[in-house]
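Journal club prep — side note

Before the paper discussion, L.F. wants everyone to see what a predicted structure for a comparable chain looks like in token form. Sequence:
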Amino acid sequence: MGASWAEKTKEAYSTGLLTYHVFCDSHNVSEHQQAPIRANTLLAFLSSCAGSYSGSALANFTARLQAWHLLHGLPWQINSEELRAIPEGASCLAPASSKRPLHKPFWVDMLKLIHSLLDPESPKDVAIFACLTIVFYCIGCLGESTVQSIKQFNPTKHITHTHVSTDGIAILERIVHDVDASPNAHLFAWRHPTSGLRPLSRSEVIKCIMLLTAMLNLPNLKGHNLRIGGTLHYLLHGTPFDVVKTIGRWVGESFTIYLQQHVMILALYLNDMPVLLEHFTRYTMLPVH
């Protein structure tokens, strides 16, 4: 029966099903409630999506779930009246706090744009761009590469020049040359014109991002968007999931959990790449029961 559907249709159905299975897993929906799906379960699922997806997208999610039931010989127990009412009710039930656009991931082009707007002669701007670039390509966490307060820097707890080799990394070699810091200095330290050497604080990076995105009318980006962006960058360039997991230093099932937590963002970008989306679905989706 699945052969009667166009490939593009099946790809789209994959995205909706992945989102549904992640919802069930994160909300501890029991197996017998997942399939055949009940009206209250469908309402709860669509309500969770309503703040991020349009009404037509909610209707498409419902159609995908119905097709999934048909494909696997499961009874579809939602009658036509419920089918018309549930998407509308889901939109009404969605909390106001959820009606925000999904966070946009960082892209290489976005990093290039930021680079073009920063001052290459400013030690702080050089340090900020170096930090953004390294965190992005290492799929790191901004908080691990910066300090909460410049007074809280501790070379035994924070990343320093001793911890990494800067050979061949031009932006880091530039910092080493300009700052003339000791090996125990913060990796992204910069020299303030009056107070001397300073470790790079997270607040300085976030302030810079907010200023530039507001200036360019770009989406509201946060530090974590670097980690999401780095993950997508490698996946879209064909890097195997297990390699991406290693780059991002995830252990055990933490990478699968991370993908599930951000499925709504990631799936939007993977939807046009059917092979990658299939691998993504297999990696994160629970088996059909």
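L.F.'s comment for the group: Strands lie at 190-192, 196-198. Keep this in mind when we get to the figures.
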